[in-house]
Prior knowledge:
Distance between the termini: 215 Å
Number of helices: 25
Radius of gyration: 71 Å
Largest sheet: 6 strands, mixed
CATH superfamily of the largest domain: Histidine kinase-like ATPase, C-terminal domain
Number of domains: 6
Amino acid sequence: MSADERLREILIEVQSLRAREAQSLKETTALLDMLEAVATAVDPQAAIRAFLGEVARSLHADVVAVLRIEDGEHRPVALWPEEAQVDAFTPPAALGSKFRTYFDLGAVPEWESCFTGRLSGTKSLLSAPVAHPDGVAGAVACFHPDPNHFSKEDAQLLRRLSRFAGQILSALQLSAQNALLAAVIDGSSSGFAIADAAVDDMPLVFVNKAFESMTGYAASEVLGQNCRFLSADSPDSPERTRLRQAVMDRAQGSFLLRNRKKSGDEFWNDLTLFPVRDGSGTATHMVATQADASDRVALEEERRDAQARLAATLAHTNDAFLLVIGEDTVGFGNPALRRLFPAPGLDWADGTSFAANWRAYVESIPIAQRPTDAAFTTPDLDAFTAQTEGQRLRLPDGKQVLVRADRTEDGDIVISATDITSLRNTERLLRQRAVAVENASDGIAIADAKGRIIYANPSLAKLLGARDELGLVGRKWRAFYRDDPDGTPAAAFMGDDDGTLQTLKIATEGNRYHETSPTYVDKVGEVVVIRNVTARINMLERQTELNAQLERSRRREAISQLAAGLAHDFNNLLSAINGSALLIGLEDDATKSVRDHASRIGRAGNQAARLVNRLLDLGTVGENDSVFDLRSVLTEARDLVSTSLDPAVTLSVTLPDAPVLIGGQTGDASQVLVNLILNASDAYDGAGGEVGVTLDTGPAPSEPGTDLRVGALQPTRAYARIAVRDAGMGMTAATKDKVFEPYFSTKGSAGTGVGLPMVATIVERAGGAILLASTEGEGTTFTIYWPLADGRADADAADGEEIDLSGLTLLLLDDEEQVTDVLLAYLEEHGAEAVSINDPTLAVETLLEDGDAWSALITDYDMPVMTGGDVVHKLREAGCAVPVYVVTALARRLKDPRINPRTVNGIFAKPLDLRQLAHTLAEELS
């Protein structure tokens, strides 16, 4: 190699060396400037800004950024210049994965299109990977708008400078953490104090504002001192002794100390102490946190007092109470708990385990009775707290308890257990009673103070006619019952003296009665029991009516028995009188006057006989009705009573010209007229006056009003109207109400009380009515309405007809000779051969000896030794077939079964109608 070549190589080598030295100098200068800028920065933020500025100055970059790369997105976290607007971008290649140098990004469209803002138009790019303190990938990137702006030497320089970026970022994060910690400590409500553990007396080196506020001491007053100046406890108190030992041991601990403020006021300090150690484990500082626990201590004291009072109170209750602290520690249990769930050995003492106590209780149960269900042997307290309504448990001893559990705000569990054995029995009883009430046949209601129904059972709805029970709610129960005109509840047929039981008539159609029993029950309301007593009331009314009828029947029976005996004798007398009158009228030499008197005597006798029979069977159905002219009956009645009237009383009778035809019996009509005329005469009581009788016809009055006393009137029917008037003493209202009652009389011993009741019976049976108008002291008018009959009057078939009894042999039997004498004379007058006998035994013997010799036997029934029934029985029993005709004064009352159509040919009433008897004999025997 020539000297020139050798020199040339040396020069090239020297030039290369100088270039490297220049580059090295440049890098060294840049590094030194970087170190100086970072070292002189006042905080990590200033350091990162200085770092970026030196990179930009050394590389002449337009923009320098520290990027944080996550999920391909590159987001700037620090920029130079600071005012540059750089958005996050996503390049086609991650800049944090390796060192990258791009001289002309314009040649790569993907790169050029990913930049916006200040980076838009970037052509040159240098980047170096940097790791963030939290492990996230990052990069330091330099941008410039000119292509080929950065050289390889620039890339080498960035590679060296980027090493500082990681350290600066770590310092920045640590600074942020320290600033946050300082802000937390300084702004904390808890007091912080830091003591130097390297010094034996451990002087305070830091206190925060909360410490100053809590103690009243400023930091300048306490720094450099031991904090024992705050203590208000004696040096040998348990808590200070524990604290002193922890300080000596450089150990951590929690303490409750009584401290004193600068003002002298004491407070409770909740102190937590912990050491700060260096890498070798030596404690360099002791940090204490402090909180004013005065309120908490006071609250705990109040809670202890309250717990003591609660324990004293719960000691006297029958409900078991248990406080479980945390998940298993017994905090409190009352005596009832120990009685209900005895736990031998532990006895639910404070601080013991719930599980252990329950296990002891289960093991104390005899094996034969001990439950094996896991839910009982190992109860789940969380499951108990989830039961909002509690859980029922049946204990082995038969008791039933309701267990309730709930968590407090502190997370503790309060459990109560109530013995509900008696309650369950009561509930069962109440359910049974409720079912009984719902299904009771009686109506049951509960009403408020105003009588409005608030509950009703189904039976009450039926009783009151409601669709269902809801249809009664809100309605007043008394409104269902109607009142009497005076406003009082109707039909109080029965009731207690205190008025709690009444029988009311329900306000509906028809007579329905309810027995009501209202009772006021405190805190419940008015309980009303209602029973349908309609059947009972009807039965009582019927029983009352029957009793009245029975009493009337007994009275009538007694009078009838008396009248029957009198009637027999009286009818025998009438038979003799009527017969004698008839015989007198048949005498050939009798004058017309004699015959008229005899006829009048006969009619009076017949009228008397009918009257006797009417008294005996008042109200019974009599003879067959006929049609007759009422004028003739009234004329006969006038003639009959004329001689019986008081001489001071005059009788005035007004008759119509035309016949007045009515249906019925002449005797009935005559009795009505005679009774009314005689009563009108008696009304003058001897004072004298006129009795007026008027007969006419006409319709019924349109409004008879209260004068209508007997029967009913039909507006469309025509009536014979008989008015009997007097101007006598008149009647009171009470007398008018009773005048037609049987046996009622205002005449004292002179009255019988049967006249007007008989009149009422006859008129009502004929379909008529009686109006009574009377004023006390002014007089009385009886107006009889008797229905008019259609057709003409019946003739007396027997009158004027000749009767021939020739050829008949008749045996007459009666214990009264005067009766047989008259009958014998009459029968012989008409051609019969008759024999009278007064001994029944002789009559029977005569007929049995030669029955064929006799045409008939006419016998009295009412004989003392042997009755007519006995005579008939002996004859028929002996086979005697002679015809028998029975005569009796009690024809309508005759009930002898031996007297019947098969044994006798006829029955005739006394006084005997001789003409009717003779007519019957002539028709049946001649």
